[in-house]
């Protein structure tokens, strides 16, 4: 149902938004065309990849539910998008259980090994930390799949892994994105014997149009299905992962400084996926559910929405300013709640949002915005406060580079269950290290910790701690029933992409496909706002006149923010699944049946 109101766009015109986005340019026809939008009944799925969408759809067609299909889709993405997803990574699922009419989340975030200290990354150049054993977190995906299937699914893991095994065995056709991502990683992949032999056959990235097989991964999935998660969490596969982390298979003659990791089999044994309550905020009569800490996704999207709701109008200027303030608070207060006291309830409260909204005036506020005080005691708006940066803002920690790594999928089934699922191995290509003979890339998720020195930072490493994430799988309910689900990759830009899509859809009157395709900008309490070229072309002059500074989005791929997927429930049970028309090569939306 589209019962939302078109709000004022301020200086930025609605007509501008609804012009065809540059990203909607037709994509090259594939052998079997990927479609970014599909509508129908009986279940739907959207991922970045046709094979993965088909894998999830096949599970729905076999009678599986949305959780079964989400796991099947994620496992398939581990084959076809191995630089973004895999069983040696982690992720977050936000799930609407139609029978219980309840939203829950499953946290499969990686953890730091017990031997990790708060200074473990201090002084290490970021790029060196990425390609290392040190950055490999205890993998969470397999425990997450197991918990998700046991609590909410209907299938054993071995059945949910079947479509992925088939793709790994038979192979998939290499597209431009896979080729380019391999090429971007070629120098470091070449430095590990296991990675080079899998992803650089003959010393080169596999050519576009060739068929890529991963028989080792097929065997790994098959054996996992037979032996169960303990094979990883303490068993033989776990021992192989630990051995690889402690002694990465560096090519003889390589000059790269590859630091070794701290993971032990006992760390794997201690790992648990956690079911957590979601974050929840009311926005314009809807309920927006997101991922709670250790992700900052739900809290930051939620806080920004509450700030927007406290403003007299919502336009692009307000979107950027609300995001700036919410990021100041995210950086100051959000970390793993088992280690830091995250004031989540206050961050999402009306009182705090109103106090923060006072700082937003007609012009961009001075940089940087200081964090607020989510302490439960909130002052009314002082008349002179608008547009000021708040109290002494202090230094803002430099942000790490955000790329289009990670992936997001959405699934719904015939019963109305909905899964929004972010899965990741952190950087595109993770740590760059393949476990020999297993066909899986290890994650580098621990580089999501603050490297420091940063006394008091909520996201410093600690034994067993989960690094703060930005992943923001989101489900919106209207009157207790799902209306929308959305999510994206892109590091910290995930938060702004999800927020912008929600604002596009709920405030600016766009359809979901328009909201996903529209040009993006990302403001994360940095001096300049990153903007896609089409965004800068259209809105740059108006926003610059308000004191905003726009800057290019660094690549690769340059000029692109995110790669979203989403779905919306239209009238009379009709579902619309939505993927990107062009970003990251375009995504794939499928429905079980186009007709009722
Ligand atoms: N590691 C990132 C996070 O959890 C996700 C990967 C990415 O998209 O950068 O926020």
UniProtKB/TrEMBL annotation:
| EC number assigned by the record | 2.3.2.2, 3.4.19.13
Would the keyword Transmembrane turn up in this protein's UniProt record? no
Recorded GO MF terms = glutathione hydrolase activity; leukotriene C4 gamma-glutamyl transferase activity
Superkingdom as given in the UniProt entry? Bacteria
Cross-referenced InterPro entries? GGT_bact, GGT_lsub, GGT_peptidase, GGT_ssub_C, Ntn_hydrolases_N
Q: Which GO terms describe its biological process?
A: glutathione biosynthetic process; glutathione catabolic process
Reply yes or no: does the keyword Acyltransferase apply: yes
- Sequence segments annotated as region (Disordered): 369-407
Query: What is the residue range of the signal peptide feature?
Result: 1-24
Q: Give the binding site residues for L-glutamate.
A: 109, 448, 469-470, 491
The positions flagged as active site in the entry are 406
Recorded catalytic reaction(s): these are:
an N-terminal (5-L-glutamyl)-[peptide] + an alpha-amino acid = 5-L-glutamyl amino acid + an N-terminal L-alpha-aminoacyl-[peptide]; glutathione + H2O = L-cysteinylglycine + L-glutamate; an S-substituted glutathione + H2O = an S-substituted L-cysteinylglycine + L-glutamate
**Assembly mode:** This enzyme consists of two polypeptide chains, which are synthesized in precursor form from a single polypeptide.
Question: What PANTHER family does the record point to?
Answer: GLUTATHIONE HYDROLASE, GLUTATHIONE HYDROLASE PROENZYME
- Tell me the protein's name: Glutathione hydrolase proenzyme
- Species assigned in the record: Microbispora rosea
